User: What shape does this take?
Amino acid sequence: MPFLESAEMTHAPRIAVLVSGRGSNLQALLDAEARGELGCSIAVVISDVPDAGGLDRAKDAGTPSRVVRWSDHANRDSFTTAICDVADEFSVDGLVLAGFMRILAPEAIDRFPNRIINIHPSLLPSFPGAHAVPQALAYGVALTGVTVHFVDREVDHGPIIAQESVPVEAGDDEVTLHRRIQQVEHRLLPEVVAAFAAGELDVDGRNVVWKRGGRAS
Ligand code: GRF
Assistant: This one.
């Protein structure tokens, strides 16, 4: 089913971006928004880490932000409810996980079905989890890359929206390889979010179809 049917839309699309760290992908989204290329507004940035660099980027862009600390919650369910409540407070249509290092409980998928996007630094289903870049290097793959996907109830598993490969080069270490992966991320994530906001993504089981002949993943 499409992400956003025009009949559902009574306002310009709004998203929440969730971060835990540096926020370079958030910056790519903020820059695309500033250029008028995102097709939606970043209504709020939510971080689970009080000193995440992403919060400074939101402030610099004049974008509201909120901190939802993991340690303030008894369990994942309560943490997830708090995140979703902030998203609702800002009337967002979807969530973008841009380096958000916590796993959300099923409630988030129920409240935002096919409306949560995650970016992952490998070609899923290879190397899910928090250590994808060093694991790809240690495994000796010749190609790794970037996956942007909808979030479902399993970790790094939902329907793939877009993938792009990044070759592993001789002498690569985690820093050099991740740097080249991030160059792709910063281009791919805004492109996917713009398509998502425009209602151009149809989800059919595990398959995501780009309407109007868009990118094939
Ligand atoms: C990215 O490589 C993303 O794929 C992964 O976490 C990293 C976040 O980087 N999920 P940044 O905070 O956006 O710079």
Summary: The chain has a mean pLDDT of 94. Helices lie at 24-34, 53-61, 76-89, 106-111, 132-139, 174-197. The chain has one domain: 12-204. DSSP finds six helices and nine strands in the chain.
